[in-house]
């Protein structure tokens, strides 16, 4: 189950559980759409994979016990250890390789 991390690891923008601007890689590294496009070039700086829009966890339990009330999002804010320059350089190096081929 996804943690639903609360922020962009790059710019620290709030990305609440219902955000349609949150992007995740296969390891759930979480960044906002703007950072993924403008800084990361759709290359995860941690695993080298690509990003997809993060799904929104339902607010209403349409099945018993399955909603944001039952599985709340994480409150643990994550921050990348890399500088903006390092993030851009890594993305530039790998952006021409399709995510499925990285």
From TrEMBL:
Superkingdom of the organism of origin: Bacteria
InterPro entries: DUF1272
Name of the protein in its database record: DUF1272 domain-containing protein
Gene source species: Enterovibrio gelatinilyticus
Higher taxonomy: Bacteria, Pseudomonadati, Pseudomonadota, Gammaproteobacteria, Vibrionales
């Amino acid at each position: 189950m996804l943690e639903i991390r609360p922020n962009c690891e790059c710019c620290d923008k709030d990305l609440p559980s219902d955000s349609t601007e949150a992007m995740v890689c296969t390891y759930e590294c979480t960044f906002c759409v703007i950072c993924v496009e403008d800084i990361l070039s759709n290359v995860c700086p941690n695993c080298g994979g690509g990003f997809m829009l993060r799904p929104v966890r339902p607010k209403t339990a349409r099945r018993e016990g399955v909603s944001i009330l039952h599985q709340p999002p994480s409150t643990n804010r994550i921050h990348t250890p890399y500088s903006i320059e390092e993030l851009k350089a890594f993305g530039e190096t790998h952006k021409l390789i399709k995510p499925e081929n990285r």
